[in-house]
Amino acid sequence: MVTGRIGDWCALFAERHQSGINFALLIISYILYLFIGAGIFSAIELPYEHELRQELKEARQDFLSNNTCVSDAHLEELLARALQASNYGVSVLGNATNRNWDFVSSLFFTSTVLTTTGYGHTVPLSDEGKAFCIFYSIVGIPVTLFFLSTIVERLMDLLSRRPVSYFHRLWAMSRSQLALIHATSLSIIIALFFLFIPAWIFLSLEKDWNFLESLYFCFISLTTIGLGDYVPGETHSMEDNPHPQLYRLAITVYLLLGLVFILVVLETCYELPQLKLLRRRFYKENVRELDSETTNIISRDQLSDQITESADHTHDQLPVISSVLEQADTLRQNGTSTPYTPASGTAANGELR
Predict the structure, then answer these.
(1) Which of 125, 184, 232, 305 is 20 to 30 Å apart from 23, CA to CA?
(2) How many domains does the chain have?
(3) What does the alpha-carbon distance between residue 136 and residue 113 come to, in Å, rounded to a whole number?
């Protein structure tokens, strides 16, 4: 008996707080996903890290043994300085050919800052540059988000909403199924033109990259992750790339266009009826009740406005009964002496009706 009551109470509690339970499960699932990802990355990358550390340690010992005139402290100081300069985007290798702060390189930097990609391979060196970067980002990032959302909204009508509506009328298919097919097709097309084809192009231009590294760079860049471990044009010599500025400018345009179309794909998937139905499972009940109540209020207001407009329109169409004095003046002006005969109440009421 007691067990049955507890079961009934648990069922009633779960029914009343279904959205809250779903939301708690979502949080737990996401945290678990983070832990699983951390464990997998640690298991994959930790052996490579140990191997690289060992190789560097052996290389350092070999250098010191072959160059007895160099002390370990001086080598440590040189390496620290080189690493610090590398963190600021200045490499000890090939400084004669690489420039990080000419106009095109600065344009590439501003695009990565405003789109929050942030490769980290080039950073402001001076205090003035760091302060301006803060101010520039505070103003520029919201403006960039507004700019991108405006472009994406226009493209959504052209690439998503209109095609779905057109084929829905043409084929008489279910709109939800048609939207899912369209989102899948659009995702494949965008992935082909902005991930796989550019990766193949970078494979032919970057001699040190394989296809996986090229695809990795495209994906990391267009999703604004921007780890900065792969940046095109960093290892080029003048013989390999005689037009480095044009190359960097083309990459900037590619990143901006690719980001726009990636956002179009994400927005198209976000508007899928299946995802909307899934999201409702995590909404609060009072929010859904409030939305329903607000919708009813708006509907009643609109109905009231329509009734009022209809009444005003009917009132405008009713015949206007002039006063006795106005009729008398009219008769005198016409020179007639026909006496005024008031309409009976029944007739007047009938006209009003």
Answers:
(1) 184
(2) 2
(3) 9
pTM of the predicted structure, to 2 decimals: 0.71
Nearest to 212 by CA among 204, 221, 223, 203: 203
**CA distances, 274 to each of 161, 184, 261, 281 (Å):** 16, 13, 22, 12
Give the pLDDT score at 346. 42
- Residue 46 in 3-state DSSP? helix
One-letter amino acid of 215: L
**CB burial of residue 114 (10 Å; 0-12, 13-18, 19+):** buried
User: How many other CB atoms are there within 10 angstroms of residue 99's CB atom?
Assistant: 13
Structural domain range at position 273: 99-285
* Average pLDDT estimate for 287-311: 48
In this predicted structure, what is the pLDDT of residue 98? 62
Residue 143 belongs to some domain of the structure: yes
What residues contact 201, with CB distance under 8 A and at least 6 apart? Answer: none
Question: Are the beta carbons of 215 and 199 closer than 8 angstroms?
Answer: yes
| Angle CA 87–113–234, to nearest 5 | 45
Q: Is residue 338 part of a domain?
A: no
Confidence band, pLDDT 50/70/90 cuts, at residue 1: low
pLDDT at 5 over 90: no
- Which 3 state secondary structure label does DSSP give 267? helix
* Cβ-contact 285, 19 below 8 angstroms: yes
In this prediction, residue 207 carries a pLDDT of 85
Neighbour count for residue 47 (Cβ, 10 Å): 10
d(C-alpha 156, C-alpha 142), whole Å: 21
- So what's the pLDDT on residue 349? 42
SS3 244: helix
